[in-house]
Design goal:
The chain is 65% helix and 10% strand. By secondary structure, the protein is of the alpha+beta class. Belongs to the binding-protein-dependent transport system permease family. HisMQ subfamily.
Length: 315
């Protein structure tokens, strides 16, 4: 009974803190005298507003054999079929010029903010995969007995961790990207992968060194060579040890991906800036962007926690 009262007390404290934070946000909004217009943000997330179908070239509206209106060019070739649209703006015999509105259609489609979310997920996912493999390779070099490999890994890690990600993105895109003719998306993935891999390498190194040396000695005594002992004995144990710090680093990767907007990749952050200029609702847009980043990072955190529990249960 006493334990339940204690738990109830601290849960009440937790709820009180949340209420206090919400009240502070509400009071701050009142203090700056800002008119909240959340409805302005909704069309930039998803909308079913009517969109116009415009003529791609000059032509004439004619009635086809199937009793359907079509736009034909001067040679008699069909350019656009006008069946299935909710509202037509033309009639049979109309002369049409390029850019004229032919019809309108109402259908659900994603807005620029959700499109930015998709781009952020893509660039983060590719960067996460490459950073994991590159970081594992650099981490193994870091503990290698070969002095050349070890020193090269140290220089790589210190150089990457000692320079800002923003500067690295500029170097990869404007220097390396110009030489190798890289696209913006590819340059962004490379920059994020290289930056994150330096931190992953140190996490991998610490995870491997946390495994007792007796594990390697036992594996070698069973006839395994060094690579097999590392792959089948050491790395699986080290992976369990490094899951929490890896989760934190991958969450940082998702947030760091916002910097690729400086090379004109329309990720979630860049989409937010563009929507702010068109909606004149800066606070609503940035709160929405922050909430979407929170959903992405929380989803990744939940997935890694589930994997960690599954691995713990298998021990």
């Amino acid at each position: 009974m006493q334990l339940n009262l204690k738990s109830l007390f601290w849960n009440a404290i937790f709820v009180l803190v949340l209420i206090s934070v919400c009240w502070l946000i509400y009071a701050s909004g009142k203090r700056i005298d800002y008119n909240w217009n959340w409805e302005r943000v909704v069309p930039y997330i998803a909308t079913n507003a009517a969109s116009s179908i415009n003529a791609p070239a000059d032509g004439e509206i004619v009635l086809a054999a199937n009793n359907q209106l079509v736009l034909q060019n001067l040679s008699g070739d069909t350019i656009v079929e006008l069946g299935g649209y909710s509202s037509l703006s033309v009639y049979e015999g109309d002369l049409i010029f390029e850019g004229d509105s032919l019809a309108t259609i109402e259908e659900w489609r994603i807005g620029p903010i959700l499109q930015g979310v998709i781009t952020t997920i893509k660039i983060s996912a590719w960067s996460l995969v490459f950073a994991l493999f590159l970081g594992l390779f650099i981490g193994l070099m870091r503990i290698s007995s070969n002095p050349a490999l070890k020193k090269l890994s140290v220089v790589y890690i210190e150089l990457i961790r000692g320079t800002p990600l923003l500067v690295q993105i500029f170097i990869v895109y404007f220097f390396i990207g110009t030489v190798l003719d890289l696209e913006r998306f590819t340059a962004g993935v490379i920059a994020l992968s290289v930056f994150t891999s330096a931190y992953v390498a140190e996490i991998v190194r610490s995870g491997i060194q946390s495994i007792p040396k007796g594990q390697m000695e036992a594996a070698r005594s069973l006839g395994m060579n060094y690579p097999k002992a590392m792959i089948y004995v050491i790395l699986p144990q080290a992976f369990k040890q490094t899951l929490p710090p890896l989760a934190g680093q991958f969450i940082n990767l998702i947030k760091d991906s916002s910097l690729v907007s400086v090379i004109s990749i329309t990720d979630l952050t860049k989409a937010g800036r563009e929507v702010v200029s068109g909606s004149f609702a800066p606070f609503e847009v940035w709160f929405t962007v922050a909430a979407l980043y929170l959903i992405l990072t929380s989803g990744l955190s939940w997935a890694i926690q589930a994997l960690e529990k599954k691995l713990s249960a298998s021990d």
